[in-house]
Design goal:
This protein is an all-alpha fold. It is built from 4 helices and no strands. It has a single domain, classed as Ferritin, core subunit, four-helix bundle (Ferritin, Up-down Bundle).
Length: 150
């Protein structure tokens, strides 16, 4: 991959991780329930960790990747997109977060597929797996706390 294209892709991915961390930070401040606030803070920290992984890789760090199978509950397949607003309910906050993680997973898979270099594929597939894991965490919470109530 051409160096300029590599740098553009890495900068784009880093910016998406910063946006994701900011998203979870803002969502954390809007959600009232303590348990969900902790999950959102944890997700914010994980997204900042992804940013560090990308920055390190950009500077020459190597990244180990072993493919793993992550369960997909597919709950997001039946969710309607939510527009963020000031009075988000817990359910709406979870839907926003789930859809965001789903989009991040798809982005990283697409970026991995765009590259011919194994090391670049590995970094993006590792991050795709982590985003899929975040989605699973959120869908599990949604299943246990929202769907059970309905």
């Amino acid at each position: 991959m051409e160096e300029q294209r590599f740098n553009e892709i890495m900068q784009f991915a880093i910016e998406r991780e910063i946006e994701a961390a900011e998203f979870y930070n803002k969502l954390h401040d809007k959600v009232k329930l303590g348990g969900s606030r902790k999950v959102l803070r944890d997700l914010e920290m994980m997204e900042l960790g992804h940013k560090k992984i990308l920055e390190g890789f950009r500077m020459g760090d190597s990244v180990e990747y072993k493919p793993i199978q992550i369960q997909n509950l597919k709950i997001s397949d039946y969710m309607v997109e939510i527009t963020p607003h000031e009075e988000l309910s817990y359910q709406e906050a979870l839907i926003l977060a789930i859809k965001r993680e789903e989009g991040a997973n798809k982005l990283y898979v697409a970026l991995a597929n765009e590259s011919d270099e194994e090391s670049v594929k590995n970094i993006f597939m590792k991050l795709a797996d982590e985003e899929a894991r975040h989605k699973l965490q959120l869908e599990t919470i949604y299943d246990e706390e929202i769907l059970i109530e309905n």
